[in-house]
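Hi, here's the filled form for the chain we discussed.

Project: internal
Contact: R.S.
Residues: 176
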Amino acid sequence: MTILSLIFFVAETLITKGARDWFPELPYVLSLSILFMCLEFMRWRIWGIISGVVTGTAFCIASQATPAQFAVYCIGNMFAATVLIFIKTAGRKRIRDSVALTAVYVTLVYVAACLGRTAAAFCFGSGAGAFGAFAATDVLSWVFAMIGIMCVRNADGIFEDQKDYLLRLEEAELNK
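And the returned structure, exactly as it came back:
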């Protein structure tokens, strides 16, 4: 997970820095955090929070954010862990096997992160319009996450519980 977090950090930094330097006037943000959190909550459950904090930190460093913005993005991304309730209720396999449930899952991660960022921003004095601002600026990240997860959801071991995946591999090896 440490190597994966380092990859996430570098990828998020490069994407954010590139977007900020090449397209500074655009009102949208492309962040990989929603995509990475979708993968990691499915794979590692609560430990997916790490990817949210790592990508939030990378985004803020690349954006030259204030300490308050660091808190907003990192705490907000951590709030996306509330999606674990949906995973527990719907089931990982059902989410993976259903295009509709996969779309709901990705959307819930996006909305939960926006709500978390809004709550954190509110603590730092932002007004009621913060949710709309976060949702609007991050919509491209949601679209990217939706496309990314739809592309990898059926790939073996990518969008599934890692414990189940490793046990399945071990069982296949024993049955050879």
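Let me know if anything looks off before we file it.
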